[in-house]
Design brief:
alpha+beta, Nuclear Transport Factor 2, Chain: A, six-stranded mixed β-sheet, 2 helices, 21% helix, 48% strand, globular
Length: 132
């Protein structure tokens, strides 16, 4: 397994926590500040979105998140590249809807350490679970 210095693991875990806080506060666009300018979002069943502008259209519309729980968070990497995986359970109300829904699955981030030593998310993807 690839291992990062503890300070890098903590920095990535902090991004994970702040990302979730931004989504829960209703400020989904805030998550883009944790991303590289050319971030790629590989949305299941859809085309890859490239760049913050394209991603902003996805995160700006859609669901109102009620709660996010993550489990089995793992951070690994080497040098200037890292990945974070975890399982998720998200409770949300779809745009225009009035009933709460639940999505479960796992997700993956690939991160790149910038010249200023700050970690940024370069790729986001997730795999919905078929479990109910």
């Amino acid at each position: 397994m690839l291992t990062l210095p503890e300070k890098d693991i903590e920095a990535i875990q902090q991004i994970h926590r702040r990302w979730i806080e931004a989504e829960l506060s209703g400020n989904a666009l805030e998550v883009l500040r944790f991303c590289t300018d050319d971030v790629r979002w590989m949305v299941p069943g859809s085309e890859v979105l490239v760049g913050k502008e394209a991603v902003s259209l996805l995160v700006h519309t859609g669901a109102g998140i009620v709660d996010i729980q993550t489990a089995d968070v793992e951070v690994c990497g080497s040098g200037e590249v890292a990945y974070k995986t975890s399982k998720y359970t998200t409770r949300f109300v779809a745009e225009g809807g009035d009933s709460e829904q639940v999505a479960r699955g796992s997700h993956l981030w690939i991160l790149h350490k910038q010249d200023n030593e700050e970690w940024k998310v370069a790729l986001v993807t997730w795999q919905p679970s078929s479990e109910i």
